[in-house]
Amino acid sequence: MTPxxxxxxRRISLSNLEKVIYPASGFTxxxxxxxxxxxxxxxxxxxxxxxxxxxxxxxxxxxxxFFTKNVLPGTPEWVRTAEVPRSEGPTRQxxxxxxxxxxxxxxxxxxxxxxxxxxxxxxxxxxxxxxLDPGPPATVVECCRAALWLRExxxxxxxxxxxxxxxxxxxxxxxxxxxxxxxxVSAYAxxxxxxxxxxxxxxxxxxxxxxxxxxxxxVDFSQNAAAKTTAAPYTLxxxxxxxxxxxxxxxxxxACEEPDxxxxxxxxxxxxxxxHGDLLGxxxxxxxxxxxxxxxxx
Length: 298
Prior knowledge:
By secondary structure, the protein is α+β, with helices and mostly antiparallel strands. The protein has six helices and 16 strands.
């Protein structure tokens, strides 16, 4: 019999709680759900009002994975959705607004990915993201070097800059913005990536071309496009271990000399929240939002 639990007055069916999702560590689906319940206070702040894309991996990272943006069959009627414009016509996507909808979605075993804009203003980005992706043999150590240069560059334009691990191999840099058309944010982000490559030619590349990337950090600016999404803070990833996309301090980035220093799993997050709070909390404080610099306005 499938267990039924009640969360905030909503009845949710939870299935296969003993199923091992992460074979390398024996981490089960029940532990995945426990992680999300314990992290909800921080995670929900970064999911609310953002139409979600799901990367599902119900049989673990070595099983079938599938990416979906549309409302899933069997979605409870109480889970909120939002109309989202697309080139082929509007569709609806899921909003995770509360603990009940988070636990329902987590039961699907999914990575949570969000756009840089909110449901009420599609295509009006309220944050900028730079995805620093290392090409082997480069690692997150090289990403940290690139991140420090980009932080200085963004600070010169008047922005506060925040960072998190991707939960995979790299880093994400995030900047809070006054709502700005995504195409303008994308153009500005591209200019930063091009400038970084010019200043750090032995470290950075701004093009996705595979032959250019070995040993370098690809500064991916494309996730600022209105149709693109980025792994949400605190989401678990479909990796060998239950790694989480984890906010980090600039001191941690400056001190990173070994890749393992910036690998965090589900078990690390609660202690970090107790120590640091939500390091990305300032992203959702409207007082921290800044406009693009005047030269990027066109």
